[in-house]
Design a protein that fits this description.
The structure holds two protein chains of two kinds. Helix content of chain A is 75%, strand content 4%. Chain A is mainly alpha-helical. Chain A has a single domain, classed as Orthogonal Bundle (ABC transporter involved in vitamin B12 uptake, BtuC). In chain A, strand 2 and strand 3 form a beta hairpin. The N and C termini of chain A lie far apart (54 Å). By secondary structure, chain B is an all-alpha fold. Chain B has two domains: 76 residues, no CATH class; 263 residues, Orthogonal Bundle (ABC transporter involved in vitamin B12 uptake, BtuC), CATH 1.10.3470. Chain B has 14 helices and four strands. A two-stranded antiparallel ribbon of chain B has the order 1-4. In chain B, helix 4 crosses helix 13 and helix 5 packs across helix 11. The longest helix of chain B is centred in the last third of the chain and has 27 residues. Chain B is globular and about 60 Å long. The two termini of chain B are 30 Å apart.
C-alpha cells in the first residue's frame, strides 16, 4: 500500500508538470487551431534559462531558498513568455491564413531551430542543477514519507492551474480569449483585438511551459537539449486525452497521464512505461473520439 | 517575356559559380562539390519539369531529369551515390505517405511504424528461414498492409489532430515493442543483423552503385503506378473526401472504406521500402524507426507539395540532400534546416511543387 501512495504522489507531481505544458498546447490550439510543436522546446529553454540564472545570479544565496526560487521562476516565466511571443511573430503570424498543414510544418521547423539553438549555446551534454537549492526534507504525511520537492511541485502546479482557470473564467481578457477560441471573426466584430489575444496566449502558454521546465530541472536535477521532444509529446498526449482546446481537460489529462504512467511503470513494466501511456490514449480515443472533456463537434454541412 | 528564360539562365549560372567559389573558400573537395551540384541540379531540373520556367515542355524536363539521374552513379563517388540511394528510399516513403496524407488528407505521422513492420518482417524471415530478400518484398508489404488494416480500423473515424497523435502513438508503441524484444524475435535494442543482400538472376547486389539502380527502378515503378492511380476512380474518391468529407459521403463515397484503403495501400508501399532499407543496411535497429523518421517523411510530403508525385520526390531530395549539403557547417546544419523549413512555408505555403489542378479540354 505504501508503494501505491508513493507512486500516486510521484505520478501527480509529474502529472502536474505535464498539465502545465499541456495548457500551452491547448490554449494555442483553442485560439489558433494550431499544434505548436515548438512548445516542447520552449519548455527546454525554460529549464536551461533557469539553470543559467540560478548559477550566474546566485539568487538562492541572496534571498534565501524559497524566495530565491520564486524570483527565479518569475524571471524564467517572463523570459520564456517573450520567446513565445517572438516565435509567434516569426513563425506563425505569416501563416495565419494558410492551410493548417503549412503551419504544422512551420511549427516543426521552429522546433528543430530552437532545439539546435539550445544545443549550439549549451552543448549536447547533460547539464546538472545544483543539488543544494532547496533543503532535502522528507515530510511525513499520514505516515508516508514524501519528499518536500514533490509536494512543492504538485502544489505550485495546482496553484498555477487554478490561477489560470480563474483568469480565463473571471477576467475580461479571459473572456476575450474564450471568445476568440469560439469564433475569431465574430470576436473581431465585437471589438476584440484578436492579435492581442493571440499574443497573450503566446505569453501565458510558454510561460507555464517554462515554469514546467524549471520544475523538471529542480525535480530530476539533470536536463538535456532533446528533452523537449518527449515531454512535449507526453503533454500533447495529455491535452488530447482531456480534449484539445479545453483548459480543464488539459489539467485533468495531464494529472491522469502522470498517474497512469507512474502506476504502469510500477505495476506492469518499467520498460513499457511510454507505451502504456499511448495505449491508454488510443483506447480512450476509440471510445470518446474527442477526448475526455472535449465537446462533440457537429458536422457542418 | 520571351527573354525570361535567358534571365533565369544567367541568374542560375551566376548562382552556380558563386556556390562553387563559396565551397572552394570553405575548402570542400572536388568530389563533394560534384555531389552537392548533383543534388541541387537534379532538384532544379525536377522543378523545371513540373513548373516549366524554361518553356521546354514538361516531358522534356522530366526526360532530362531521368537521363541525368540514371547517369549520376557514373559521375559520383560512393558516398554521394549512397546519398542518392537514401533519397530514393525516402522518395518511396514520401510517395506512399502521399496517398494517405496528400490525397486522402489523413494526418498520419506514424508512417515509420509501417516502414518498421516491413523491414522487420523481411529481416526476421530472411535471417531465420533464409528466404531471399527480393521474394520477401510482397510478403513484407502484405504484412505492413495487414498491420495497417488492423490498427487503422478502430481509429479511422478520428478527426485531424486526434488522428495525428494516435499515429504518433503507434510509432512509439512499435519502437518500444521492438526495443523490448517482443516475442523474442526482434533482437531488442541491438536489432537484427546479417540480413542478406538481394540477388537478381544470380547477380548479387552489393555496392551502392548497384543498389542505386535497384532502388530507383522501384521508385520508377511506383511513380508509374501511383500516377495511374491518381486519375482512377479510387484516386478521385480520395481527393474528394480530402476536400469535403460530408459532400463526399453525400455523393455515395463510403469514406471509412476509402480511408482504410488509403492507409493499407500507403502502408504496403512503406513496408516494401522497409525491405529495401533492411537489405541495403543489412542491420536494422529500433532507432531507425523513431518518431523523428515519421516527421521527416511527413515533411517530405508537405514541403514538396502534398498530393503531387514530383513534389514527393523533390521533398526527398531536399530533406535528405540539404543536411548533406550543409555538412560543412557541422553543428549548425540542423539549425539552418529548421530555419529553411519555416521560411519555405512562409513564402511557399502550398509546398514547392503543388499538384496541378486537373484540366479537361472543352471539346
Amino acid at each position: 500500500m505504501e508503494e501505491f501512495f508513493q507512486q500516486l504522489t510521484n505520478g501527480l507531481a509529474v502529472g502536474g508538470i505535464y498539465a502545465l505544458i499541456a495548457l500551452g498546447y491547448t490554449m494555442v490550439y483553442g485560439v489558433m487551431k494550431l499544434i505548436n510543436f515548438a512548445h516542447g522546446d520552449l519548455f527546454t529553454i525554460g529549464a536551461y534559462l533557469g539553470l543559467t540564472l540560478l548559477t550566474s545570479l546566485s539568487l538562492t544565496g541572496r534571498f534565501g531558498a524559497l524566495a530565491g526560487v520564486l524570483i527565479l521562476a518569475v524571471m524564467v516565466m517572463a523570459l520564456v513568455g517573450i520567446v513565445g511571443i517572438v516565435l509567434e511573430r516569426a513563425a506563425y503570424r505569416p501563416l495565419r491564413e494558410s492551410p493548417r498543414l503549412s503551419a504544422v510544418v512551420s511549427a516543426l521547423g521552429a522546433s528543430i531551430f530552437l532545439q539546435n539553438t539550445v544545443m549550439l549555446i549549451y552543448g549536447a551534454k547533460f547539464h546538472f542543477y545544483p543539488q543544494n537549492i532547496l533543503p532535502k526534507i522528507t515530510i511525513h504525511l499520514f505516515g508516508l514519507p514524501i519528499p518536500l520537492m514533490r509536494i512543492i511541485i504538485l502544489l505550485t502546479s495546482l496553484i498555477m492551474m487554478a490561477a489560470l482557470y480563474l483568469f480565463i473564467q473571471k477576467t475580461k481578457v479571459g473572456t476575450a480569449i474564450r471568445a476568440a477560441a469560439i469564433d475569431q471573426g465574430a470576436a473581431r466584430l465585437m471589438g476584440i483585438d484578436v492579435n492581442l489575444v493571440i499574443m497573450i496566449v503566446f505569453l501565458i502558454g510558454p510561460a507555464l511551459g517554462g515554469a514546467a521546465g524549471l520544475m523538471v530541472g529542480l525535480y530530476y536535477g539533470h536536463i538535456n537539449f532533446t528533452m523537449g521532444w518527449i515531454y512535449g509529446l507526453k503533454a500533447f498526449t495529455a491535452a488530447i486525452l482531456g480534449g484539445i482546446g479545453n483548459i480543464p481537460g488539459a489539467m485533468v489529462g495531464g494529472l491522469l497521464l502522470g498517474v497512469i504512467e507512474a502506476m504502469g511503470a510500477a505495476y506492469i513494466s518499467i520498460a513499457w512505461k511510454d507505451a502504456i501511456a499511448f495505449c491508454v490514449l488510443i483506447l480512450i480515443l476509440i471510445v470518446r473520439p474527442t477526448g475526455l472533456l472535449g465537446e462533440r463537434v457537429a458536422e457542418k454541412v | 517575356m520571351k527573354d525570361n528564360r535567358v534571365i533565369y539562365g544567367i541568374l542560375l549560372a551566376v548562382a552556380a559559380v558563386n556556390l562553387h567559389l563559396l565551397l572552394t573558400v570553405y575548402s570542400v573537395d572536388a568530389e563533394t562539390q560534384v555531389g552537392i551540384f548533383a543534388i541541387l541540379g537534379l532538384s532544379m531540373i525536377l522543378m523545371e519539369g513540373h513548373a516549366n520556367y524554361f518553356k521546354m515542355g514538361h516531358s522534356l524536363g522530366y526526360a532530362i531529369f531521368i537521363l541525368i539521374l540514371v547517369m549520376s552513379p557514373l559521375l559520383l563517388n560512393r558516398y554521394w551515390v549512397d546519398v542518392l540511394n537514401n533519397v530514393g528510399l525516402y522518395a518511396l516513403l514520401g510517395l506512399s505517405l502521399n496517398i494517405i496524407l496528400g490525397h486522402a488528407g489523413l494526418f498520419n505521422m506514424g508512417h515509420a511504424s509501417f516502414y518498421a513492420v516491413g523491414a522487420y518482417t523481411a529481416a526476421i524471415l530472411n535471417t531465420s528461414y533464409g528466404i531471399p530478400v527480393l521474394w520477401l518484398l510482397p510478403v513484407a508489404g502484405l504484412a505492413a498492409g495487414l498491420f495497417a488494416a488492423v490498427v487503422a480500423r478502430p481509429i479511422i473515424h478520428l478527426r485531424g489532430d486526434y488522428l495525428l497523435i494516435v499515429t504518433i502513438g503507434f510509432v512509439e508503441i512499435i519502437r518500444i515493442a521492438l526495443v523490448n524484444n517482443v516475442f523474442g524475435i526482434t533482437g531488442g535494442s541491438n536489432g537484427i543483423f546479417g540480413i542478406s543482400r538481394p540477388e537478381l538472376f544470380g547477380f548479387r547486389i552489393r555496392r551502392p552503385h548497384e543498389f542505386f539502380y535497384l532502388i530507383w527502378f522501384f521508385v520508377a515503378v511506383t511513380v508509374f503506378l501511383f500516377h495511374r492511380l491518381e486519375g482512377s476512380r479510387f484516386g478521385r474518391a480520395l481527393n474528394y473526401l480530402r476536400e469535403d468529407e460530408v459532400a463526399a459521403e453525400g455523393s455515395g463515397i463510403n469514406i471509412a472504406h476509402y480511408k482504410l484503403l488509403a492507409f493499407i495501400l500507403g502502408a504496403t508501399w512503406a513496408g516494401m521500402a522497409g525491405v529495401l532499407y533492411a537489405t541495403k543496411m543489412t542491420i536494422i535497429s529500433p532507432e531507425s524507426f523513431s518518431f523523428w523518421e515519421s516527421v521527416l517523411v511527413f515533411l517530405i510530403v508537405i514541403l514538396g507539395g502534398s498530393g503531387s508525385i514530383p513534389g514527393a520526390i523533390l521533398g526527398a531530395f531536399l530533406i535528405v540532400g540539404l543536411p548533406e549539403i550543409f555538412r560543412g557547417f557541422a553543428n549548425a546544419r540542423m539549425l539552418i534546416f529548421g530555419a529553411v523549413m519555416m521560411l519555405m512555408m512562409i513564402f511557399r505555403t502550398q509546398g514547392i511543387l503543388p499538384s496541378r489542378a486537373r484540366r479537361f479540354s472543352v471539346d
